Amino acid sequence: MAGRPGYLTLPIFSVLAAIGYVYYTAVFLAVPRWLGLSTAAGVANAVAFTALAAACLATYAVAVRRDPGRVPPGYAPDVEDAESTVHEIKRKSGDLRYCQKCCHYKPPRAHHCRFCKRCVLKMDHHCIWINNCVGHENYKIFLVFVLYAVVASFYAMILIIGSVMHSVPKDEQSGSDSSRTSIIICGVILSPLALALAVLLGWHIYFILQNKTTVEYHEGVRAMWLAEKGGDLYHHPYDLGVYDNLISVLGPNIFCWLCPVSNTVGNGLRYRTSYDIPISTPPM
Ligand SMILES: [Zn+2]
Ligand SMILES: [Zn+2]
């Protein structure tokens, strides 16, 4: 069985260093300068930011470590089960999807990752920042990490801007110009990072609303173009409507959608399609 890529990579080290650097600047430079660590507001902000940073670290660790979902040994598509496979077969012009490199059939939505050197269930994309694929098993936790990272980045920006604009007078007397410069440098580094994370989060929300993976988005763009050329209309087979899409990606419990828990729906080997008979309970 192929192992997963290692954890000691430059991008992973960079992410951890960035979290540490922003945390240090926000809690130990910005908050003391703006609110002071002896005031209730200062302590509350320091505690809140610490909790957010801890949530970022915890979800990041899970996204890095969790297996994104592997094809079980001996997996064979159930061709008798029309509901689960027919649309996937149709999509691929009549052939059952088979991975030549792994020498097994590919379940619907699974793809071969050239970095992980194996097939990944419901592969979204290979992310170098976690040195892991984002797939069926770790998509939700990856998404929650990005969400927490966006919130933390904007929170840190507020603390940074606040501390640069209003500092407590006694700090000015002690001549803390170097801390002001450090805070500004952190703000300059953080701004493009926060923007990039927000754009990434926006993209994934857009994908979830359509029940698409990043791979399927790119495939869909091509399929749509081909369909339009042939005078047809392309329809993404896993698009079940906004609410069912959210449930199938984020889990059946709406209160857990933004929590750092992985309530993955199903085993990753078959997915409801819009051609299936509608059922009132969450799939599988
Ligand atoms: Zn493969
Ligand atoms: Zn991969």
TrEMBL record:
Where the protein is mainly located, per its record? membrane
Which reaction is recorded as catalysed by this protein?
L-cysteinyl-[protein] + hexadecanoyl-CoA = S-hexadecanoyl-L-cysteinyl-[protein] + CoA
- Which keywords belong to this entry? Acyltransferase, Membrane, Transferase, Transmembrane, Transmembrane helix
List the InterPro entries hit by this protein, alphabetically. Answer: Palmitoyltrfase_DHHC, PFA4/ZDH16/20/ERF2-like
Which residue windows are transmembrane per the record?
A: 7-31, 43-63, 141-162, 182-209
List the GO terms this entry assigns under cellular component, sorted alphabetically. Answer: membrane
Name the PROSITE patterns for this protein. Answer: DHHC
**Entry's Gene Ontology molecular function annotations:** protein-cysteine S-palmitoyltransferase activity
EC number, as in UniProt: 2.3.1.225
Domain of life, per UniProt, equals Eukaryota
Q: How does it sit in the membrane?
A: Multi-pass membrane protein
Localization per record: Membrane
**In what residue span(s) does the Palmitoyltransferase DHHC domain sit?**
94-218
Q: Which Pfam families match?
A: DHHC (PF01529)
Top EC class, one word: transferase
Query: What free text does the record give on domains?
Result: The DHHC domain is required for palmitoyltransferase activity.
- To which protein family does this belong? Belongs to the DHHC palmitoyltransferase family.
Q: What is this protein called?
A: S-acyltransferase
- Per the UniProt entry, what species is this protein from, by scientific name? Panicum hallii var. hallii
